[in-house]
């Protein structure tokens, strides 16, 4: 299933540059057009706390979350939340996109997270939403 490009479909676009110990996050709020950036630990409790902060801010609104993995602990940790719409993106796609538009070739985790958001916003028709086979998979 491809992304819905309606600007009102999601309350926010979130890009996550994941790593073993920490995750850098860029969030674009669609309502007010602002950016937020944060870093969280890769521990399950840190991820749960971050999602709970999102729930306080956005309630049950749909949030589009792009991440550079098709499987793994972060994807599995996030798939249990029904309001998070997950978009796995090939890391090579993000790297090539960065190289195309960052002539300096400078790389930072925050830049990567923001580029993931940009990829979803501008090229969503080429990206697929991750879907679990059944509710049992989410659990």
Q: How does this structure look, described?
A:
The chain has 139 residues and is α/β, with parallel strands linked by helices. The protein has a single domain (12-131), classed as Nucleotidyltransferase, domain 5. Helices cover 37% and strands 24% of the residues. Strands 3-2-1-4-5 form a 5-stranded mixed beta sheet. The model has no long low-confidence stretch (mean pLDDT 85).
* CATH homologous superfamily annotation: ATPase, nucleotide binding domain
Low-confidence stretches: none
What general form does the structure show? globular
Q: What number is the mean pLDDT?
A: 85
Output the CATH class name: Alpha Beta
Assembly annotation: single chain
User: Can you give the helix content as a percent range?
Assistant: 25-40%
Characterize the largest beta sheet: strand count, sense, and whether it forms a barrel.
5 strands, mixed
The helix-strand sequence is EEEHEHEHHH
What layout of secondary structure does this protein have?
Layout: E1 12-18, E2 22-29, E3 34-41, H1 44-58, E4 63-67, H2 73-78, E5 84-88, H3 91-101, H4 109-123, H5 135-138
Parallel strand pairs: 1-4, 4-5
Antiparallel strand pairs: 1-2, 2-3
């Amino acid at each position: 299933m491809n992304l819905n490009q309606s600007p009102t479909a999601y309350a926010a676009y979130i890009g996550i540059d994941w790593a073993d110990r920490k995750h850098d996050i860029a969030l674009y709020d669609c309502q007010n057009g602002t950016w937020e950036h944060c870093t969280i630990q890769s521990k399950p409790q840190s991820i749960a706390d971050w999602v709970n902060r999102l729930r306080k801010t956005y309630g049950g609104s749909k949030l589009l979350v792009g991440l550079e993995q098709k499987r793994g602990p972060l994807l599995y940790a996030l798939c249990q939340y029904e309001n998070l719409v997950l978009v796995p993106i090939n890391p090579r796609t993000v790297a090539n996109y960065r190289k195309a538009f960052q002539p300096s070739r400078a790389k930072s985790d925050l830049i990567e997270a923001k580029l993931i958001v940009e990829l979803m916003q501008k090229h969503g028709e080429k990206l697929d939403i991750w879907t679990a086979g059944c509710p049992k998979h989410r659990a």
